[in-house]
Amino acid sequence: MKSDTLVATKFDELLAQIEEYNPSCDKEKICETYELAARLHSDQKRDSGEPYIIHPLAVASILASLHMDDTTIMAGLLHDVVEDTDMTLEDIRELYGDDMVVLLDGVTKLSKLEFRSKQERQVENLRKMFLAMSRDIRIIIIKLADRLHNMRTLSSHHSDLRKKEIALETQEIFAPLAHRLGIYKIKWELEDLCLRYLEPEAYNNLAEQLTMRRDEREAFLNEVSETIRTHLEETNIACEITARPKNFYSIYRKMVRQNKSLNEIYDIHAVRVLVETVKDCYGALGVVHTLWKPMPGRFKDYIAMPKANMYQSLHTTVIGPAGRPVEVQIRTYEMHQVAEYGIAAHWKYKEGKGVDNSNAAREVDNRLNWLRQMLDWQKEVSDAKEFVESVKGDFFGDQSVFVFTPAGDVIELPDGATPIDFAYRVHTQVGHQCVGAKVDGRIVQLDTTLQNGNIVEILTARGTGPSRDWLKIAQTNQAKNKIRQWFRKEGRDEFSVQKGRAMLEKEALKNNIDIAAMFKVERLNDIIKRTNFVSVEDMYVALAEGAITTLGIINKIKEDPILKKALLPEPESPTPNIGQSMKVRPFSGSNATHDKGVWVKGEADLMVRIANCCQPLPGDAIVGYITRGRGVSIHKADCSNVHYYEAHEPERLVDVQWDNENTGVFQAEIEVLAMDRDALGMNIMAAISETKTRINSINFEVDEDKICHGNVKMEINNLNQLEYIMNKLKKIRGVTEVNRKAGAR
């Protein structure tokens, strides 16, 4: 039969493919395995109508293209027999032993996972996948080969919706996994196939445009390649040069991200130069930069600083012939093997017989650190949505920066990451106890964006904890989730509730909403129904953490006829009664973090805020100023603004005093002047941390006279606490002045 001939031909091609890179393969065992798989699948057909055995043969061929070992290739031939035939794992154990059982059991379990299910199931499925990978990384390599062939053969029998579901799952899970493992051959093809089904119009347009320009592009690349080859031969550097177009998906992503047409994207292809040694790599780079001017900011040294997936290469973009930019990639033949096959290349050496394979084994283990992090972290995270978003965003994102610990270890983080993200990636407790950071030996602010090659040192102090402001600074979901967990564990949710309520109150006032009516239980229940929250407290916490906006809530109120009528009555003009003394609620926009109290002569329910110009603390002499529409602002009695009000608007000043029965947390800022020396910043932060005071930000700059100017923002309860800290800092060696600063003007 024609189909039998086709199958036999496919198997002969597979054998030839294996023998080409592994002449000593167990050909007899591979043949027996193929015959077993063919017999077990003999009555089965694919959706296309072709014999089912075509699929296992294709999977085995993909594995052979990665130069995998005999056991892995045989597992590829058998990967569906446990699920789709009467063959059991015990049968497999008798025929092949435990190693094969581990592979087939893992692949079978992965085949049953659905990654586009409800988030609780997604978490469990991701966990199972990570566990399978941790047992034997070849399990996921087989699964990637399986997914690649399935994507190649998405049948017309599948609905368009089903095709898109499979493609989206592949794009979100399997293509990033191939990237993480450094198997670019599979990654690029999966990405292009996903684009074909998810954005068919864009895919077809891109293919058409690239085809139209193919002859011109090939002529240009040939000119670049021959010029490099000629000059490398003159310098006695043996090389192999190829030119390749970048995959469709990466070009499409650049067009979307940069909002440019194909004609405006210059690095749609690359010239690859393969040489013998690392020394030759840098020699070739010098030749290329002699031939053409390099473009600023476009050189990347992945040899000195390899990617987490083991990729090593030199990348440079130069202004080539006719002023056209071109990317040149330079690496050794060995590096090229890793670039193509990723972790599979190291696995071959790890499993090698009769050789010292300890380095390869260690390399594989080191490159799977991220997998162990995922498994550990999954145990800590209780929220399914948080975990799924973090896996897809932090670990499967395609834009990364690579930074060093002081010990020289490489830490990979998403693009835009800060020292806070770095601290939490190193260890949860390092993150919680972070009080500052050094980048390349200089103290920096915690919101500093890390760059490739930075050496990052986290400064810690016991007894401290994260700040809520870090939620705005951190870029990784992992760091944000651990910060939230700390506050939940420490029982600090009450703060979020109060902060969220205050934020909503402030926005409501801006929109002339009846506050008293809005905060009645029945109205709050109406609001949370329209915003899909389980409770009012959940809504407040979401507001405090930035998950939703106050304006979004107000718009929901305005859009609802019943709420609008109840909460937006005709405005009235109340007449203030300045005659009675009473305690009023603090203004929601103040920088207090909890329930501070101020006594003021005025109307009930006036809003109160702490003036940012002078930032008074309990213990300071204070004066109130009735603002136009923003309640009463509280100033220090000697504030320059108060002097202005006394001269121009004395009728707006009111008597106020602190309510000593209520304590709150206020922001204070101090300036420290000192003679610069080693560990000065560490000593200052440690001294403050010893007082159990939260540091919100800290910045040090050294002038040309070697005078260190430090600015520290802290959360303070009262003036006595601030003065105690200032006196403590004055005792530090080298400190000459410690002054309290007013707020930003």
TrEMBL record:
One of its GO terms (biological process) is guanosine tetraphosphate metabolic process. Residues 397-460 form the TGS domain. Residues 52-151 form the HD domain. Pathway: Purine metabolism; ppGpp biosynthesis; ppGpp from GTP: step 1/2. Its EC number is 2.7.6.5. It is an enzyme of class 2 (transferase). It catalyses: GTP + ATP = guanosine 3'-diphosphate 5'-triphosphate + AMP. One of its GO terms (molecular function) is GTP diphosphokinase activity. InterPro entries: ACT_dom, Beta-grasp_dom_sf, HD/PDEase_dom, HD_domain, NT_sf, RelA/Spo_fam, RelA/SpoT_AH_RIS, RelA_SpoT. In eubacteria ppGpp (guanosine 3'-diphosphate 5'-diphosphate) is a mediator of the stringent response that coordinates a variety of cellular activities in response to changes in nutritional abundance. NCBIfam families: spoT_relA. Belongs to the relA/spoT family. This is GTP diphosphokinase.
